Request: fold
Amino acid sequence: MDEYDQVIQALPSWLARPLLELPSTLAPQVQEVRLRVGCTPMFTVRGAVYAPQELGREGKALQTLRLTPPQMEEILFTLCGGSVHTHQTEIAQGYVTLASGCRAGLGGQFLQTAEQGIVLQELTSVNLRIAREKTIDLPEELRAALQEHFIGMLLVGEPGSGKTTVLRSMAQELARQKKLVSVIDERRELFAGMPRRTFPGEALDVISGIPKGQAVQMALRTLSPQVLLLDELGGMEEVSALEQGMFSGVDFVATLHAGTPEEAVGRPQVQALQARGAVKVLVWLQGRTAPGQIREVRFL
Reply:
């Protein structure tokens, strides 16, 4: 069963049935399914967005579907496994992570309250990102860099360019090298639902479900890693935590949303790390039309 089918089966049956009618050759290529109030479901395939009528006759049942606000509420309820309350922390950050490791991004009207923090008042869109158990062959120069004391490495690409896939492949390579690796997986996307046999000797320690800055500090205190891996480098708190690791001799690999290397190095977080000599390698991905493909490995 393809990961697309696993994700779709997490939706209400009235929506899952027509979505599962996609051709078997097409479903493995779907990267995202976008659900919006008043609109028919849309599909991202190889970086391009398609309406159901553009995918062949199998999408006919979806062409007349226009999602309503009550239906969107039911979709969220089902994605949360019938317990929206247990996912409130994630929802406040604009997403829900499914058991498969796939993430559902949420759009709508949020409200900041003194008592409850950020709450979702009205859901208007859901973006289901299909996370697949896929790894790639890393170029020789990147494998060689991972064998050394590289200090800091940034994996740069636009949304949908396969940063998570490449980061997972790096984790496999580091495990093969028998390095002690701590993975900071705040949103439970990197390895949720994946069999542990994927990694030689189960040579990874994973911390998930808490903010990355706190998780990095926890890993440094308790897990004695040689390398830290984290998805989506965020604010200065995470930068400070990575600096602590650097001063302890711990290397790190972090992903970063950016269209070009120049855009990446212009970010305040990256400039702060560079000022301390903490970024030595930059890996730039091709883009959303060729997810997981590496365009350049640049040594700084």
Observations:
- The CA atoms of residues 2 and 25 lie 10 Å apart.
